Amino acid sequence: MKSFRGSKRIWPGYVPPNKNELLSSWIFRNSREHKIKPHSFTKFYLNTSSFWTRDVDKFINNETLHLICKQTPLSITQIKDMQLVSYQDIIFNGELLTSYSQGISNLGIYHRTRTQNGLLICPTCLGRDKYYKKKWRLLTSIGCLECNSYYIDCCPKCLSPIIFQRLAIGEKSTYQEYPIYLCWKCHYDYRKCRQIRLPKIVRNYQNYIDKTIADGYNRHINYSFLYFDIVYLILRRVQSGSTLWTRIRDAFIKEFGIKEPELFHKCQFPSFKLRSKIIPFIYIIMEDWPESFVIFCKKHNLRYSDFTRGEHDLPFWFYRIFRDFF
Ligand SMILES: [Zn+2]
Ligand SMILES: [Zn+2]
Prior knowledge:
Blueprint: E1 3-5, E2 8-10, H1 23-33, H2 38-46, H3 62-70, H4 76-80, E3 109-110, E4 113-114, H5 123-129, E5 143-144, E6 149-150, H6 200-215, H7 224-238, H8 247-256, H9 272-285, H10 291-299, H11 304-308, H12 316-325
Antiparallel strand pairs: 1-2, 3-4, 5-6
Helix pairs in contact: 1-2, 6-9, 7-9
The protein binds zinc ion (2 copies).
C-alpha cells in the first residue's frame, strides 16, 4: 500500500537522507529498502533507465527531480542539497558543469563503470554509518578527522574505483544484497583497510578546509570560493606539463622534497595520492597569511607572473600581497 501525504505518493519503503549524504547513496539505500535493484528501482519509480549512467550527484533532469519530490516528503531544495551544486559559491563560483567544476571530482562515467577514482571513502565511517557522504567527492578531502585516517580512492585489493550501485549487479532475475562496505568487484571488505593515521599537518589542513566549507569564509577572505580559487591555481601550477613555467613546481620540489613523476604531467584531475601530498603544503605556505607566503615566494624568487602566467588577474586579496610586499 502506498501512503499519501497531500498530493504526494510516498515510496512505501521510504528512508530519509542522512546528514550530508550524496543523492546517489540515498537513492541506492531506498532501492534496498524496497528490495529492488537500483537500476529497476529508478526505472520503475523515476521513469528513467539512464539514472546510473549519469553523474546524478552533479545533475539530474527536471522531470526526475520532480518525480523524486512527488514520491518523498522532501522539497526540491532538500533534494538539491544532496547534490554537489550545494557547494556553489562555497567551493566554486558560477554554474556547476559536468565537464569540470573547481574542486569537484569527476567519475569518468563510461556506461555502468567509472574510469576515474572520483569517489573517496573513509572505510570506518562507511562501515559504521553505511552511506556515502558529499565531501567524498571533493578534491580537497584528504582525511577523515573523526577517524584520524586517510580516505581511500579505490579498493586496496583489486584497485577498482568505488561504485557502490554495482554491488547489486548479479544474476539478472535474482535480487542480491551485499553490504555497502564491500568492493563491488572483488567483495573485499573496506573496513579491513589498514588505517593510516593523519600527520598533524594534514589534520590541521583538513580542519581548516572543513571549517572553511562549513562557514563559507575563512581568515584569508570573506568568500571561501576565492580562497579555493588560489588553492587550485597553485595546485595547477605545481603539477604542470609546462617546460616554460616551472618555478612554482621547482619551489615545491625544493622546499618539500616531492618526487612524484605525476608532477610533470598536466592533468585536470590530479590523483588522490598526489593531491594528498601537495595540497597540505599549499595550506602550509599560506597558513600565516601573508608572512609565510611572502617568505616562501622570496626564498624561491617567485613573482606574480609565475602565478598568473600572464593569463588573467587573480583575486584582489591575493594580488594585494605582491603589490604590498614585492
Ligand atoms: Zn571516518
Ligand atoms: Zn576490490
